[in-house]
Design goal:
- It is built from 17 helices and 42 strands.
- The chain has a nine-stranded antiparallel beta sheet with strand order 14-13-10-11-12-15-23-21-20, with helices on both faces. An eight-stranded antiparallel barrel has the order 27-28-29-30-31-32-33-34, surrounded by four helices.
- It is globular and about 80 Å long.
- About 1% of the residues have low confidence.
């Protein structure tokens, strides 16, 4: 076994690998750029080597710099994580030439399966059902449009060396094919140094289901069942679960055996994932094989009890798989939510900045389930514009799917993140969505259920009353505390009243509170009553309450006459006032937001790639105005309505902050 491993990556996956290596008694080496000098993975590792400036193409994916770090530290093996150099055969060859073990598959397997075009050809030769498409190289946008018409819209334009949603576009028209080809090509060159593009049919109403495989160098290979990854946005997975709520045992076995056969056909060794697209009749088609560890691997670990990183290291050291196929049973259910630095209220655009508060839920038991959180950040740390926007992967396990979902709901509600925009409210909303709860979803889930973006959650009457009752009870505790601090006034003891008016989401609820030693009973005007219990203390940012016998977790922020409360994807100002205060508050005029309708504001921190219009030019609704790049993704900003450009305030190459003015209209 190895004594020292270098992790050629950063962020949460580097931290994840370090944890397993530490448990195995293996020392670890981290590498870091200028932007990651104080990163968590650097702190966790036994050694750390600086490798260059923040851009990945000047640091993390420069093979010579990584090789220098290996030589400096004497690392015997390298775990590449995912992304960066994880599927780069030249890197694996460089390690082999240096006599350093690659904690991943053989070079030939990377070349065969890591390239999306080659992998499809091999799958076809092995009689694996594949999605119709054009596997050859595409020279220009005109050829892309021609091929798209031959295949038939909609089509998927994909980077051959792509992954993680980078370099992928769906096109429904010639214009979108032309535009998508160029954007995919640019992103592929920027992210992977390889701008080759291919096109395949985009299957409507699909489910994305993948099979985890493990193989060693002694001819043994197994599948660790499947993961459902259908909740995606911009072709990037957001929610994953294992097993799939859609598959039956027969289909699961067939997919698993096919995945293993494909792995053996290419001489695979290590952990890998065979991805399939599955239609409503459970017909499945090979998409690609990822010759690396997947982001969503924790859910597989939770239902099988197998540490995939440990097995990757074991295989790289020449070991034999310790399990056979019959040993791999499905135990319970696991769900993963990816927490991204993306603002759901701004079209999920990237958000960067300092994490002024970062308090994930404690790992371990929660109710009838278990919480796991894979992360690479810490409170006070910076979310950089140079890398992937992932903050953490929050996972929960339960003996069944409903328990895993309920555990996830409570874990999300107790996850405190402040200082940046993030998608936590959105994934919380998904956990409550009827389609997700029923398991009836496709890869079009987000596009279909949130066609106009995400504007937050409006709680139903039952949930809103529970929140109102909790707010009233919490307010009573705060009022009693204020009364004790203030003491007496004019020799009269201050009295905390029982009647209050709670307003939230436009609803006005008059309540009466009867308190006792164990909690409070909150009675509404219609006679309905809710029992509220909990140990919240004024000033606490998190409240674990029990309302009507059911748990309610609230993020709490004090505002005038009430609280900002966040739960289950809802973000509300909840005011708790005396009847007289409520009467006066109703007379206050509402403050109107400023008019920015004649401006194009930068929706995220980013770099202006190009300006597509000129001053004085008339633009039409939907016309491209400019392109802004952030976190390795190109974002085309379009005109919302017809107008004339009166002034352009930015030029290509400018770095902009959120809400910086790009251009103005007449």
């Amino acid at each position: 076994m190895f004594d020292k491993i270098l992790i050629a990556n950063r962020g949460e996956i580097a931290c994840r690998v370090i944890k397993t290596a530490r448990r195995m008694g293996i020392k670890t080496v981290a590498i870091y750029s200028d932007a990651d000098r104080n990163a968590l993975h650097v702190e966790m590792a036994d050694e750390a080597v600086h490798i260059g400036p923040p851009p990945a193409n000047q640091s993390y994916i420069v093979i010579d710099k990584v090789m220098d770090a290996i030589r400096q530290t004497g690392a015997q093996a390298v775990h590449p994580g995912y992304g960066f150099l994880s599927e780069n055969p030249k890197f694996a060859e460089a390690l082999e030439a240096e006599g350093v073990a690659f904690v991943g598959p053989p070079v030939k397997a990377i070349e065969a399966m890591g390239d999306k075009i080659t992998s499809k050809k091999i799958a076809q030769e092995a009689n694996v059902s594949t999605v119709p498409g054009y596997m050859g190289l595409i020279e220009d946008a005109d050829e892309a449009v021609k091929i798209s018409n031959e295949i038939g819209y909609p089509v998927m334009i994909k980077a051959s060396a792509g992954g993680g949603g980078k370099g992928m576009r769906i096109a429904w028209t010639d214009e979108e094919a032309r535009e998508g080809f160029q954007s995919s090509k640019n992103e592929a060159a920027s992210s992977f140094g390889d701008d080759r593009i291919f096109i395949e049919k985009f299957v409507t109403q699909p489910r994305h289901i993948e099979i985890q495989v493990l193989a060693d160098t002694h001819g043994n290979a197994v599948y660790l069942h499947e993961r459902e990854c259908s909740i995606q946005r911009r072709n990037q997975k957001v929610v994953e679960e294992a097993p799939s709520p859609f598959l039956d045992p027969e289909t699961r076995k067939k997919m698993g055996e096919e995945a293993v056969a494909l792995a053996k056909a290419v001489g695979y060794a290590s952990a890998g994932t065979v991805e399939f697209i599955v239609d409503g009749d459970k017909n499945f088609y090979f998409l690609e094989m990822n010759t690396r560890l997947q982001v969503e691997h924790p859910v597989t670990e939770l239902i099988t009890g197998v540490d995939l990183v440990e097995q990757m290291i074991n295989v790289a050291a020449g070991g034999t798989l310790p399990m056979k196929q019959e040993d791999l049973k499905i135990n319970g259910w696991a769900i993963e939510n990816r927490l991204y630095a993306e603002d759901p209220y701004r079209g999920f655009l990237p958000s960067i900045g300092r994490l002024t508060r970062y308090r994930p839920p404690a790992e371990g038991p929660l109710g009838d389930g278990i919480v796991r959180n894979d992360t690479g950040v810490f409170e006070g740390g910076e979310i950089s514009m140079y890398y992937d926007p992932m903050i953490a992967k929050l996972c929960t396990w339960g003996p069944d799917r409903p328990t895993a979902i309920e555990t996830m709901r409570n874990a999300l509600d107790s996850f405190e993140v402040e200082g940046i925009g993030h998608n936590l409210p959105f994934v919380a909303a998904v956990m409550d969505h009827p389609k997700f709860v029923s398991g009836d979803m496709t890869t079009a889930f987000i596009a279909e259920e949130y066609p106009d973006g995400f504007d937050g959650v409006t709680l139903g009457e039952t949930d809103l009353r529970r929140v109102a009752a909790a707010a009233a009870a919490m307010n009573r505790v705060a009022e009693i505390r204020r009364a004790r601090i203030s003491g007496t006034l004019d020799n009269h003891e201050r009295h905390v009243g029982e009647d209050w008016v709670v307003t939230a989401q436009g609803a006005r609820m008059a309540v009466s509170i009867a308190a006792d030693h164990d909690g409070s009973t909150v009675t509404f005007e219609d006679g309905g009553a809710l029992r509220v219990e909990g140990a919240w203390t004024p000033g606490d940012s998190l409240a674990w309450m029990t309302v009507d016998g059911k748990p309610l977790v609230l993020k709490v922020e004090k505002i005038t006459h009430g609280y900002r409360l966040r739960t289950r994807g809802a973000d509300m100002k909840v005011h708790v006032r005396t009847p007289r205060q409520a009467e006066l508050a109703a007379l206050m005029p509402e403050k109107l937001p400023p008019d920015t309708s004649k401006m194009l504001l930068c929706p995220m921190p980013g770099l202006v790639v190009k300006i597509d219009v000129e001053e004085g030019q008339e633009v039409q609704e939907g016309q491209a105005l400019c392109t802004v790049e952030a976190m390795k993704m190109e974002n085309i900003l379009r005109a919302e309505r017809k107008g004339v450009v009166s002034a352009i305030k930015a030029t290509a190459g400018d770095s902009l902050a959120v809400d910086d003015v790009i251009m103005e209209f007449e």
